[in-house]
Amino acid sequence: MAVSAFTPIIRTTPSPSFTIPTSPYLSSFTRTKKLQHGVLSLPPVAALSDPFVLQIAESLEDSLPSSSSSSLQKLRDFASESLLSTPWPSRKDEPFRFTDTSFIKQSEVIPVSSSPPPESLNHLSVFEDTHLLNLTLIDGYIIDSLSQLSGLPDEVFVGSLSSISSNEITKRVLEFLPSSEQGDLFWSLNGVGSPDLVVVYVPEGCKVEDPLHLRYISNEGSDKESKKLPVSNPRVLVVVEKGGEIGILEEYVGGGDGDLSYWTNSVMEIVIGEGAKVTHSYIQTQSMSSAHIKWTSIQQEKSSTYELVEVSTGGRLSRHNVHVQQVGSDTITGLSTFHLSGSDQTQDLHSKIVLDHPRGFSRQLHKCIVAHSLGQVVFDGNIKVNRYAQQTDAGQLTRSLILEPRATVNVKPNLQIIADDVKCSHGAAICDLEEDQLFYLQARGIDLQTARKALILSFGAEVIDRFPSADLRKKVELHVKKLLDPKVPSKVV
């Protein structure tokens, strides 16, 4: 039988001509993987490993506090194994063909401190427009003193995995920790470096009336001229049982100087039971010198509903991976996203919706504005309608607005249909403002500059207006106005 090029060759004794690499990066991280069932596996692993990836992984493992939850060991072991053969992504890799991650690779990546000192939190003690239900994470660590969860129903749990007192809830949550490949390199790095797991658990039939505000603050950073890049790895698991409902607002902000350099590498997994509903709002306004990489993975059971509304304006490099798996019939999925890219910014959205069962419904609207000649936006949207997903209704639309010459937009809508009884559509458009729209406003006495501002803002308003809260819509709209026109006051008087 012919031997495939990918067949692993495992030797119990290295051949005389083989020398184990002595790179400083292949230290304790790879040594822990040397022996499995008495078989030496280091030589083939070492040949495949990326020294930069191993260096980050090892530093993340070493930075974990001794009190870190042992329940996450299964996740960490799996993530460690996958990192041993996963190289750093390059432009030659299809998922990163338009996304340059060299900003991170050229930096000195260091883990954030184990816990922020109390004196560094004085300026964060009071938040404006904070929702009643609020959980605050600073550099990936829950800060109880800045959180407010007293309005939650008694049977709902929000907090760290290590603080769950119910064995039943703990057992149920651990069922959803990944034991097989879920995401990419950044997903695995999060699995290795996350200090704890934030759990949001909604039991069967429970409906949480007020939205839960998850506020992520990046407090530790370095000068943008510095090569140091502190990295945090917040991880959240949301489990909503049959018939449950909850609204979640994720907000990512910088806690210090607006130009601090740091890297937020975040993961959220959402499991939605039969007939349950999750409304997910996501706002990203981090430092313009930061890297923001986010994974959102959703599993929807029969007759469940998931709705995402996203506005992303921050980060020198910002990438959001959204993967939705419909694992039951009659599911509803809605994705509405708006990205704004300014000077030397990359805003990237990679989405995937997989429909496997009959009568699935999905709608995706993606809008972006590139307001600077050095700005870039990437959209890679994939909708896959598999064989048994008959009577599916799926639609996708991406529209991009380019305001400056040499600005870049790369869009890649992808609709794969294997079923034969479906209603599916997709479309893409890239343009500047339309002349007839400008003429319409000018004909009514509005000067050209004011007309352009009104049309630009209304372009993104179609997504912003889908936020469930009027106060949130007003806040985001003001923020977008400020970015497009610095003369706009920061607060409404």
| Gyration radius, in Å | 23 Å
The proportion of residues in beta strands is 25-35%
Overall 3D form: globular
Spans with pLDDT under 50 lasting ≥5 residues?
1-28, 30-47
**Would you count the extended β strands for me?**
23
Mean pLDDT: 85
Classify the secondary structure makeup into a structural class: alpha/beta
Number of helices: 10
Distance between the termini: 78 Å
The profile of the biggest β sheet is: 11 strands, mixed
Q: Approximately how much helix is present in the residues?
A: 10-25%
Q: In a nutshell, what does this entry contain?
A:
With 493 residues, this protein is of the alpha/beta class. The chain contains 10 helices and 23 strands.
Task: Provide keyphrases for this structure.
alpha/beta; ten-stranded mixed β-sheet; 493 residues
Q: How do the helices and strands line up, and which of them pair or pack?
A:
Layout: H1 28-31, E1 35-36, E2 39-40, H2 42-48, H3 51-63, H4 73-83, H5 102-105, E3 108-111, E4 133-138, E5 141-142, E6 157-160, H6 167-174, H7 185-193, E7 198-202, E8 212-218, E9 228-232, E10 235-240, E11 245-254, E12 263-272, E13 277-285, E14 291-300, E15 305-312, E16 317-326, E17 332-341, E18 346-355, E19 361-370, E20 376-385, E21 392-402, E22 408-417, E23 422-431, H8 435-442, H9 448-464, H10 470-484
Parallel strand pairs: 3-9, 4-8, 7-10, 8-11, 9-12, 10-12, 11-13, 12-14, 13-15, 14-16, 15-17, 16-18, 17-19, 18-20, 19-21, 20-22, 21-23
Antiparallel strand pairs: 1-2, 4-5, 6-7
Helix pairs in contact: 4-7, 8-9, 9-10
